[in-house]
Design goal:
heterodimer; A: five-stranded parallel β-sheet; B: two-stranded antiparallel ribbon; about 20% strand
């Protein structure tokens, strides 16, 4: 009991987090690390940008809390990470969402593209390469 | 990442789960290596020896190879190609190209109908145009057209899609001096037109 209270003081509390990636291993990994660094009410996972934007739109419409943190992959079928971003930044969301692009792409063009998005939205956007480490996830969640 | 989890995991069931993922990842990696190897082999083989390849015979051969797959998917191939038409190319590439288009047409079939694949040939100005049409899902070319033959691009939500098939196919067509164009209507089907050089 005492130990539990201690961890809940030390662990950052976040309402909800969203993981958008078609690779089940990355989703598993991010979830697993999140378990150890953060207390989170709800983790949403989506296999592609389309499913994610539909889910988040639904949250906005029904006035539910949208996620505080988003982990976003770039190369996905049906709707990729860029198309998702394009639609996401157009949504009427009041709070600032921390969007973290997590990709295996080392193409400098992709990084530049994320810079362009930064200038177009109040949400924060970061760009990181896979595999993502515990330290990086800790940094992301602490800043939220 | 996974190895680190495995080392620190105490729960046996979770360990097994991680091991399964590792096995899957390493199988995929091996596939990727083989695919890349194939791509390199095609693009370095510029002095490819081209011989006449009979299209009709190749369709029959591929159809026989795929007979179990076609049967289990209730797929039908309509071979409208005249028996005497040959192109200048290589047998192995021709078979691989036909195989890939046919399996794609079946894999991305429309959920409400059995796949029908029609293969025909037209001759125009020293070119032979091989058309492969299906009645499958179709693809939005305005949206994806520039990525269709790209490497590691997938468009439908199929778990086993690797995004390499059409990339290799395009390389093989180009290695034989051909080119390809695509027409598609979402929910109706796709037609690939492949332009080959006629045999002298």
């Amino acid at each position: 009991m005492k130990e539990q209270r201690l961890t809940s003081i030390l662990m950052k509390q976040i309402n909800s987090i969203c993981i958008i990636d078609d690779d089940p291993i990355t989703v598993f990994g991010i979830k697993k690390i999140l378990d150890t660094v953060v207390e989170c009410e709800q983790i949403y996972t989506y296999r592609n940008g389309k499913l994610a934007i539909d889910g988040i739109q639904e949250m906005v419409v029904s006035q539910l809390q949208v996620p505080d943190i988003i982990f976003l992959d770039i190369n996905m079928p049906i709707m990729d990470g860029w198309e998702f971003l394009e639609e996401f930044i157009a949504l009427p969301i009041k709070k600032i969402v921390k969007i973290n692009i997590i990709t295996s792409s080392i193409d400098p063009f992709d990084m530049q593209r994320s810079e362009v998005f930064k200038g177009r939205t109040k949400h924060t956007i970061s760009f990181r390469n896979k595999p993502i480490s515990k330290k990086e996830i800790q940094e992301i969640t602490i800043a939220a | 990442m996974l190895l680190e989890f495995l080392v620190n995991e105490n729960d046996e069931a979770e360990k097994q789960n991680i091991l399964n993922m590792l096995t899957h990842a390493s199988d995929n990696l091996l596939d990727t290596l083989e695919n890349l190897n194939e791509v390199v082999a095609i693009s370095t083989n510029i002095n490819l020896e081209k011989r006449p390849v009979n299209i009709y015979d190749k369709i029959i051969a591929v159809q026989q190879n795929l007979s179990a797959f076609l049967k289990s998917n209730k797929a039908q191939i309509i071979n409208k190609v005249a028996e005497d038409i040959s192109i200048l190319g290589t047998t192995a590439y021709m078979e691989s190209i036909l195989m890939n288009f046919i399996t794609n047409a079946v894999k991305y079939k429309h959920p409400e109908r059995d796949p029908i694949i029609e293969i025909a040939v037209q001759k125009t100005k020293g070119k032979i145009v091989l058309s492969i049409s299906d009645n499958g899902l179709g693809i939005d070319l305005d949206k994806y057209g520039d990525k269709l033959f790209g490497m590691y691009k997938t468009f439908h939500d199929h778990q086993d899609a690797r995004g390499i098939g059409l990339y290799i196919t395009k390389n093989q067509i180009e290695a034989m001096g051909g080119r390809i164009n695509t027409k598609s209507i979402v929910n109706e089907g796709t037609t690939f037109n492949i332009y080959f050089n006629e045999t002298d």
